[in-house]
Write a structure and sequence with these properties.
283 residues, alpha/beta, Purple Acid Phosphatase, chain A, domain 2, 5-stranded mixed beta sheet, 9 helices
């Protein structure tokens, strides 16, 4: 059995299928991990959702910020479709929309496989979280999203505060920090505050901002964290952090890392060139 982690799809199914063909991926024997952001910007968001869902137990995906945006639009009702990104309208008008949204809603924010020694998130782990804290906070928000308060939270989840973790946080503030950290974060301050505005490559961002994995290296916790979300960063392997978003939707590539192989083996990394699917823009 092989286990592959793949970066953000963002509505680009054809490159994924070409990549899986190159990997000789067998859904009857192999497992596919996806870093989230299955949808938005690319032309095949609906097909991406249907394809990954149909893989069943052969696929694991975590929620990304674009997935949550789609869920928020769905929670607002059919009227929300008119205000959606055009690439999301086919999802919101699909006959199987409710089934797809229920499946997506129940995807985790964090997945940890002890046997492989890897943790999967969309954006990263914030200071000062350890694995137990991350798992507990992620599970707490999943319970909110799938419970009676889910629709209300999806409407109110947006906001950049609080920007620093405290165990004393409760309610909306605690849930919002968790979502922001796991699905939106790229940079942190040395004191642990997360920054949600800077989106460029590290060489384009001035100190004291640093990539979250330099402020809070997973390796110091004995962790290996696979993440996406950061197309301007590209593929990275540093400090126990493995970044896989290589900008497929921007005309870059779709990158896979074989998790049951040594990550420092060049053969464990495979990239599939992607055609330009949409023009560059904001996140």
């Amino acid at each position: 059995m092989a286990c592959y982690a793949v970066g953000d799809l963002q509505g680009c199914l054809d490159p994924l299928q070409r990549l899986l063909d190159r990997l000789r991926f067998d859904p009857g024997a192999d497992v596919l991990w996806l870093t989230g952001d299955l949808v938005n910007r690319g032309p095949q968001s609906l097909k991406c959702l249907r394809f990954v869902r149909a893989l069943g137990d052969s696929a694991v995906t975590v929620l990304g910020n674009h997935d949550l945006h789609l869920l928020s639009l769905h929670a607002r009702g059919v009227a929300g479709a008119a205000r959606a990104d055009p690439t999301l309208v086919p999802v919101l008008r699909a006959p199987d929309r409710d089934e797809l949204m229920d499946w997506l809603l129940h995807c985790p924010l964090l997945y940890h496989e002890a046997a492989l020694g890897y943790t999967l998130v969309h954006a990263g782990l914030p200071p000062p979280w350890d694995l137990a804290t991350a798992q507990a906070c992620a599970a707490e928000v999943t319970a909110v999203l799938t419970g009676n308060e889910g629709a209300a939270f999806l409407r109110d989840m947006y906001g950049d505060q609080p920007d620093r973790w405290s165990g004393a946080l409760t309610g909306l503030a605690r849930w919002r920090f968790t979502l922001n950290a796991l699905t939106r974060m790229r940079y942190c301050m040395p004191d642990g505050r997360i920054d949600l505005r800077a989106k460029g490559a590290p060489q384009q961002v001035a100190p004291p901002l640093q990539p979250w994995f330099d402020v809070h290296p997973p390796a110091t916790l004995g962790l290996k964290v696979v993440f996406g979300h950061w197309s301007t960063l590209g593929a990275v392997a540093r400090g126990g952090a493995y970044g896989l978003d290589t900008g497929c939707v921007w005309g870059g590539s779709l990158t896979a890392l074989r998790l049951d192989a040594a990550p420092d083996d060049a053969a464990a990394w495979v990239s599939q060139p992607c055609p330009m699917a949409c023009a560059p823009g904001g996140d």
